[in-house]
Model the fold of this input.
Amino acid sequence: MEAVRTEALTKYYGRTRGIEHIDLTVRQGDFFGFIGPNGAGKSTTIRTLLGLIRPSGGRARIFGLDIAKERERILERVGYLPSEVSFYPNMRVRDVLKLSAGLRRRRCGETVGRLCERLRLDMAAKTDELSFGGRKKTAIVCALQHEPDLLILDEPTSGLDPLMQRAFFEILRERNEKGATIFLSSHILSEIQHNCDHAAIIREGRIIAAGSVEELSRSGARRVSIRGSAGCGALAGVKDLRVSPEGLDFLYSGDMKTLLSVLAEGNISDISITEPDLEEVFLHYYEKEGDEK
Amino acid sequence: MTIMNHELRQGRTAFVIWTAAVAFLLVICIFIYPEMQEDMDVMSRLFASMGSFTAAFGMDRLNFGTLMGFYAVECGNILGLGGAFFASFAGVSALAKEEKDRTAEFLLTHPVSRARVVTEKLAAVLIQITVMNFIILGLSLLSVRLIGEDIPRKEILLLHGAYYLLQLEFACICFGISAFLRRGGAGIGMGLAAVMYFLNLIANMTKHVGFLKYITPFGYCDGADILADGKLDAGLAAIGVLTACACVLAAYWRYTGKDIR
Done:
């Protein structure tokens, strides 16, 4: 079954583009990455899925339920971590967690205790006095305490130190192993590469690539590093060219035979041609002209 | 009831401060009445000679020398303005503060319908106003008893009832406005209450703009009219109730279809 399915999901803010014709499928139990820089439409997609904003066109279903008609039933099964966390004034962490559980008509005391211990979150602390990381941890516990079937996380690690990030992803992996679907929006590509099974890349409100993280990393482009000199700079398909006294380094997505013939004419003492990592693939997609996938 | 209880807790400080301030001023006013009563002849003549100003506050139709005349002018203004400011503030903050403080994202990503949010927030505002009025009425009656005066039960209850209705109307109007705002609207709420108060003063000063009584909720709270007639103006009160209901419906309509950014 699909945890999330969108069909031509579109949102305009007046005349300003939010997202356009987003087709996205996230299978139940998947650890799904949603990649794009700020302003690409990640948060708009998430806010539409959560019913905070109404789509201008298209449709979306979560666990087969229509987001426009069955918002509350969907949200019973969803935990959400926003990128920017805000709480009501003059509340302690335990009050916020209790309020969140109360709004879900749940008692989550045991799970809350365990999560706070793992994330080293002081339940007696006042939220107004917490650091950004502390507020983020409070929001993480809010999102996880009712053990949701789908976790939607928008830039979840900003504000968390490396130790806490590790603890957080451990918890996510445990939840994922128990069957929860994770929808992780991020512009930190290593996070996606290390944790996600599938991912989609969004650019200017449109999905430009989607698939397994392995497939995405296995795009046609290759990272080419040369010690010596060769006339590769003018070749079609060369991106991210870096020239140093020792040699050349670039991302290549053109014809391989042409590259090899140019290299053969060059003065080369060493060469490596490797698959780029996700970050390079991401840049590759972002630097492409047009909207071809 | 989780949202309502949360709202009551969040609004506790403002509620206590406004209730204490209005009650304190009202009690002080009642306690200075016996002292002022001794000079009341002079004061009544003074007030009667102030022309439009006298009419604005209804002092041309009230006997300032009686407890109820004094109460309707002095305590009525305190209760009217103080109560209207608090009701407007509570109403206009209720929904708008969630977007202003960016807590709407927290609240509305829980499995609660927007209609439930509106209902429970409105209930919290109305409860605060009701409790505030009960406390003030209780302290007021106690103070009248303490200065040794008989309690003119019907007149006092009519005056307090009118101001309670006025506060409910302001709260509902501002609650409706709140659903359309993305930022805090305390200034709008308080400003509206102040403008309506002055419209009533203007309507009292000249009959040419008597129609203003149909616009401002203070129109049906005029102490001189209430004491003279022994009842509220049902027509003006009905306009108030209908306006309040329309604003609440507008709040439901707007908030349930609104994009939360």
Notes: Chain B has one domain: 2-256.
